[in-house]
Design brief:
single chain, 420 residues, mainly alpha, globular, disordered C terminus
Length: 420
């Protein structure tokens, strides 16, 4: 490939993923106090601010995860055969997804059902129609639906890698097209137009996808709908393109002075479409929604490259613990959120304490269990490196010592030359 490089590590992109996984704790803690989410717990203390927090963070967190997923997919396929890539993704994604679904996710579903019915017992819940519906409807995944969506994207990537020869003309043509597009993005006005085009493309994607017969029905029981699968696919595709083309990645990372203001407006205004708006206004709001999402995602890419692209003990620890944080925190938010229904503290204080308590519990569990026991590390992190991670600095060492200079050590799934 013309862009082949020695192993390179993208600490900014890995760090972006890690920080957003930690930020998800605050997002889900806000659901306890958001008027639009009264089903999370029976807490009567609610404030519109938390709806604003939830809807704002939803604009950026999940789409960014899909961009990162596409980016690292290319880098992993550069170092593995398609079969090896799928085995790696099975271990790193499917095994933790199944493990958490059968444990903490089921515990949360049981607690919700128990709270709703007044406590009638575990076996009665398992025998109920509600238990079967959790699995048939796909609700079993809770906050981890994005991992479910990533699985077919990984499979598709492996098929493309295996089915199209590396020297195929279509590969070279696609790469030339991406490089040529990147060349047009040097000027700020061109980049602004690029963001608008991305928003329009997403709007068209939704509009066309909604017309597919049965688009909103589950593809099969327990999975997801076609509409949900395609909704995040453009972000995955841009991640793939950025990994394939260093010139495009450079353009995406280039700091634009107007982007912080644009991102602040996008997060503050939070445009969302509504079925009651009518077709024309609804489509316009959908476009503004997608424009806001792309603005926030691209701003984060620039922000993390500008301020968080260096290797350090902290970034290594964050990268290692991020999956644990995302897997476990949701159930803990519900458990602690239930306990806060018994107190009458200021709602902002409760939210802060709930966020800290859930995150601290996951950190404690990660440090004392996931990093220490091979079976738990495999089940909940999809890794088999427990012997090595035991020797690595833990939380207190990582945040109590000065940062490392850039060493080129393997921090994440980055590295290798683009291959997809």
């Amino acid at each position: 490939m013309p862009h082949a490089k020695p192993a390179q590590h993208y600490h900014d992109i890995d760090g972006m993923r890690s920080v957003l996984m930690f930020l998800s704790v605050a997002l889900h803690a806000a659901t306890v106090y958001a008027p639009a989410r009264p089903w999370i717990t029976s807490n009567a203390q609610r404030h519109d601010f938390f709806d604003w927090v939830i809807f704002g963070l939803h604009l950026v967190i999940t789409p960014t995860f899909f961009f990162v997923g596409g980016f690292f997919t290319v880098l992993m396929l550069a170092r593995r055969t398609p079969g090896g890539f799928l085995r790696n993704r099975f271990m790193r994604t499917v095994i933790p997804l199944i493990a958490i679904a059968l444990s903490f996710n089921m515990l949360e579903h049981y607690l919700r059902w128990n709270d709703k019915t007044g406590g009638t017992g575990l076996m009665r819940w398992i025998d109920s129609g509600g238990f079967a519906q959790i699995w048939a409807s796909g609700e079993w995944s809770l906050h981890l639906w994005f991992l479910v969506s990533l699985v077919p994207m990984f499979i598709l990537s492996a098929i493309v890698q295996a089915g199209i020869p590396k020297d195929a003309a279509i590969r070279a043509a696609a790469l030339r097209m991406v490089d040529r597009a990147a060349g047009w993005l040097k000027a700020s006005w061109a980049f602004a137009l690029f963001v608008i085009v991305l928003g329009a493309a997403n709007t068209a994607n939704f509009a066309v996808g909604s017309e597919v017969p049965g688009a909103y029905d589950l593809l099969f029981p327990g999975f997801q709908s076609w509409y949900k699968l395609i909704s995040e696919f453009p972000f995955f595709v841009l991640g793939v393109a950025a990994a394939l083309s260093p010139s495009l990645l450079e353009r995406l990372r280039t700091w634009r002075a107007w982007m912080p203001l644009a991102a602040a407006l996008a997060f503050g205004l939070q445009p969302y479409s509504d079925p009651d708006q009518g077709f024309a206004l609804g489509m316009a709001m959908l476009f503004l929604n997608q424009l806001a999402i792309w603005t926030l995602v691209l701003f984060l890419i620039q922000f993390f490259y500008r301020y968080f692209s260096r290797d350090s003990l902290r970034t290594r620890w964050l990268a290692d613990s991020a999956l644990s944080m995302y897997l476990f925190h949701h159930c803990l938010v519900y458990i602690y959120g239930r306990s806060f229904t018994q107190v009458d503290w200021p709602v902002a204080l409760e939210w802060a304490l709930l966020t800290v308590a859930a995150a601290a519990t996951v950190i404690l569990f990660h440090e004392t269990m996931i990093r220490r026991f091979a079976l738990l590390r495999l089940l909940f992190n999809g890794k088999t490196d427990v012997a090595a991670i035991r020797k690595a600095p833990g939380f207190w060492q990582s945040f109590g010592l000065p940062g490392l200079k850039r060493t080129g050590g393997d921090v994440s799934e980055a590295g290798g030359k683009p291959a997809l």
